[in-house]
Amino acid sequence: MIAIVDYGAGNIRSVEKAFRFISEETTVTSDEKTILGAEKVVLPGVGAFGDAMQKLNESGLTGTIKKVVEKGTPFFGICLGLQLLFEGSDEAPGVPGLGLLKGYIHRFPDTPGFKIPEIGWNSLKITPGTKLFKGIEDGAFVYFVHSYYLSTPEPVVAAKCNYILDFHAAVEKDNIFACQFHPEKSGAVGLEILKNFAAV
What we know:
Layout: E1 2-5, H1 12-21, E2 26-29, H2 32-37, E3 40-43, H3 49-59, H4 61-71, E4 75-78, H5 80-83, E5 104-107, E6 118-123, E7 125-126, E8 141-146, E9 148-151, E10 157-163, E11 165-173, E12 176-179, H6 187-198
Parallel strand pairs: 1-2, 1-3, 3-4, 4-12
Antiparallel strand pairs: 5-9, 6-8, 7-10, 10-11, 11-12
């Protein structure tokens, strides 16, 4: 069973729907016992970094998520869920993230000819041998909606992308997986990524 962490963020139900479409049993929950007992855990989200961290801290879910990762349970962050795994963000200066991975979330620089947020399809440069992108061709297109991007010094990058600049679009390290784009909105490629996570 896959537990989808409910902390009041957007896009949670669309992620649930996508997993059910590929015949995976899911539950949307904020209950620690249920989350810790799940075979896999997903942290989706659309919204603001600071608000999300406040909700996670106030609900006690910050500690729950850290316990999940410490247990070795496969964990998948999506969009804002990726950003929250890192140390902080330009969107909320001074607000610590979960700090499960080293790295920082930056705002795209204002650049003539480019709109912020990036909204739409973009192609991935996939790191060979990654579990999340098994069977997916390099250059595959996925769907983004974001104004902020990840930069990490760790050798955890599963895919890169370019919009204004090169940025890290997906990561995987041990039992932690995450992507900045929305697999639940990325058609057949996105469903394959969800299947790959479910099969970890």
